[in-house]
């Protein structure tokens, strides 16, 4: 099976850009799925075929075009795969799959900031590489990883928990991968409540969502989908956290985050990291 970037499908679908950002993150719909087909929504187990290429020369660095890749959308499985170098399916690509219908195909362009950054990925992905993924949604079935305990709390079976403390503006801007955002937050150790990061509790931190993993992948994942003005409590298991001077190995972390602003234009990171 080959994922082709055709200009026209037998159904008459013409590829179109459905989302783009000033930093280069872009979603293109190559083929629309079946109008009455199942939809990829958070909590559902989905099956996809995809390939990942280097934008510069088209060289394939990951190929699941023949062997389907399955995961529960929004469960954190992709974050874990990314953390351990499995599958090459980046968190930004996962968010680009949401909303697809079975049979649909999308092309997802990922800038270095949301990919493997300055370090690259071994011999396959060089430093500061732009990546292009072509994804086909094969199937959607019921998943069990996402459990809604209340209308404001979402718990995953891997321990990642997102609790909405204050709802944001219904018509406000939403934090999505590739967007520059400003947020207030405090980080604590779950075990004893000790604060390990309060630097941005009163002065917002500016960063590109999906492009800054200094606080762990769970932090970025927990912010995704927030509305401006929303406050969330995010409990992060060790596999999606990080280790630092004040954060020991295998530590569970708790963040309280307030989304202050979603920035329209690309900005330079505020450089206030320690």
List keywords for this structure.
274 residues, mainly beta, 8-stranded antiparallel beta sheet, 6-stranded antiparallel beta sheet, 14 strands, globular, disordered N terminus
Q: Could you characterize what this model shows?
A:
This protein is mostly beta strands and 274 residues long. The strands form two sheets. Strands 7, 8, 9, 10, 11, 12, 13 and 14 form an eight-stranded antiparallel β-sheet that branches. Strands 1-2-5-6-3-4 form a six-stranded antiparallel β-sheet, covered by helices on one side. The N and C termini lie far apart (47 Å).
Brief write-up:
With about 270 residues, this protein is mostly beta strands. The protein has helices spanning about 75-85, 90-95, 215-225; strands at about 15-20, 25-30, 45-55, 60-70, 105-110, 130-140, 145-150, 155, 160-165, 180-190, 195, 205-210, 230-235, 255-265. A hairpin with a 2-residue loop joins β7 (about 145-150) and β8 (about 155).
User: What coarse outline follows from CA principal-axis ratios?
Assistant: globular
Q: What does the main sheet amount to?
A: 8 strands, antiparallel
Oligomer: single chain
Q: What is the residue-mean pLDDT, rounded to a whole number? A: 80
Q: Poorly predicted ranges (pLDDT <50, ≥5 residues)?
A: 1-12, 144-150
Q: So how many helices?
A: 3
Q: Using DSSP, what is the number of strands?
A: 14
Topology as H/E string? EEEEHHEEEEEEEEHEE
| Content of β-strand | 35-45%
Rg result: 18 Å
Instruction: Please report the distance between the alpha carbons of the first and last residues.
Output: 47 Å
Helix vs. strand class: mainly beta
Q: Give the % helix.
A: under 10%
